[in-house]
Structure formats: structure tokens, C-alpha cells
Amino acid sequence: MNADTPTSAGLPEASLVVKGVTHAFGPKKALDDVSLEAPSSAFTALVGQNGAGKTTLFSLITRLYDNRSGSIRVLGHDVRRQPAEALSRMGVVFQSRTLDLELSVMQNLLYHAALHGIGRSAAKRAAATALSRVGLESRAKDRVRALSGGQMRRVEIARALLHGPSLLLLDEPTTGLDIGSRRQLLEEVRRLIAEDGIGVLWATHLVDEIEVADRVVALHKGRVMASGSVGEIRARGKSEDVGAAFLRIIGEDDEALSRVSA
Ligand SMILES: Nc1ncnc2c1ncn2[C@@H]1O[C@H](COP(=O)(O)OP(=O)(O)OP(=O)(O)O)[C@@H](O)[C@H]1O
Fold this sequence. Notes:
Pfam families: ABC_tran (PF00005)
Bound molecules: adenosine-5'-triphosphate
Order of helices and strands: EEEHEEHEHHHEHEEEHHH
Shape: globular
InterPro entries: AAA+_ATPase (IPR003593), ABC_transporter-like_ATP-bd (IPR003439), ABC_transporter-like_CS (IPR017871), ABC_transporter_ATP-binding (IPR050763), ABC_transprt_ATP-bd_su_PQQ (IPR022467), P-loop_NTPase (IPR027417)
Protein name: ATP-binding cassette domain-containing protein
CATH class of the largest domain: Alpha Beta
Organism: Hansschlegelia quercus
Strand order of the largest sheet: 6-7-8-3-9-10
Keywords: ATP-binding, Nodulation, Nucleotide-binding, Transport
């Protein structure tokens, strides 16, 4: 089945489908039989505390690590069997910043486009479009060092969009940002979903980044404890407050903790 093939339910396959993935570092399982989906045209929040396994999962999806168990499909392409097809359909913003501070915004984007084999004039057009998508077209000639943390993140998103991906992966992109920049970044990514129909997997430990229309995957100690709509997470965690529901699902709500310490 390829990206354009409808599933048996008549719906296009999700942007990302992970099934039964386990990954260990020595004796320690960082991911244990993880299955999840990130639909197209949707914001999927991968929520987990430190050490939950979010970055390990991103490393497997992006092929920094080889997935030896289960399967990972991006727009219908298995990352092991069709890595070039799968990788060409995803854009990634890693947790640590990876822009060259001494180069201009445009130089950073053109360098990345060259790595993707995009010709110079096509790269310039793609970079200008991507920068306008994140509201930074006027900063193209500025050195990255002159930008704020939030603007640097938006340049990284523009860079991830250069080759026109259908799936955008962001690993804790708001780390270190102030509230205003955090909100702006979220708004921009949600706008990309609405305008372009891309699927987004957004890793975070901040439940206040979740909105009511989002999909949620609760990851804890390498296991998916719950996934579904915000309504389903609230029902599962028996709380109208998503944060409280999440803590109850992972067994770290006040009641569970008091049972442990009793
Ligand atoms: N290269 C590695 N070698 C050994 N253990 C690792 C390695 N990378 C991650 N781990 C362990 O795997 C588990 C999952 O880590 P991971 O970084 O994927 O979690 P995370 O959810 O991204 O957390 P954080 O928010 O702190 O980045 C943790 O227990 C971590 O210590």
C-alpha cells in the first residue's frame, strides 16, 4: 500500500503509523511495544515526562536508530524498507538547536536545501515560501544570532518545511521559550495543519500545550498508557482537567502517590 492508497475503512493512511516498536539501550527498555498514529491534518501531542522515551521514538522514526522490532510507516512508506521515500515526506525539528548562528537565516536554509539536493534557484523560492509561512520573510538576511529563541525555532520549522513534507515532527520545540513565543509557535504550527493538511507529532511534557481538538498519546516509562482524543483522555483519566487526567493515567496523581508512600 502506498501513501495514496485508501485503507480498508476508505480513509487515507495516517501520516505516521507506529506498530509494536521496542527499543533498548543495553538491558534498559526505553520503548516497550509502542504503537501510535499521527493522522494527517491533525496535531498529535506525544506527552511524556522526562525519560518517557519521546526522543528515542523520534530517533527511530527519523532513522538515527534502526527499528529492529515492529514497524514505522510514514505516509504508507516503511522507514526500514523505503527509507528514502519515508524520509522525504517528513520534516523534523530536533530538541537541540541546530542552526549555524553565524550564518544568515537564508544561508542556513539554502545549506539545508543543498543537503536535500534541491537546486539553487528552487531552493531560494522554497526558502522564501517557507519563511513567509512562519512570518519571518523580513529576517532572511539577518544573522541567526540576532534572532530571539522563538524566532530561531520558527526558522527551524521553515527549514523542516523546505522539501514540502506531509509529516512534521517536533521534539519539545518550546523548551526554553517564554510564554508569548511558546504560544506563537503553537499557533503557527496549528495554522500549517489547517492550511496544508500536514500531520504533526509534537513531543512535550507540558499538557497546557494541548487543545481540545488535538489527538493525545500519553507515553510513560517507554509505554503508551493511553491515546485518543482529548475527550477520551479526560474520560480515561476521570478528570475534566487534561493534566490531572494524564497524571492519573500514568499513576502519578496525588491519590496514587499517597498509596505508594503510605
Ligand atoms: N543513548 C542512550 N543510552 C542509554 N540510555 C539512553 C540513551 N538515550 C536515552 N536513554 C534512556 O532511555 C530512556 C528514554 O529517554 P528519552 O531521551 O527517549 O526520553 P524523553 O522522553 O525524550 O526525555 P527528555 O524529555 O528528558 O528528553 C531514559 O531512561 C534515558 O535515560
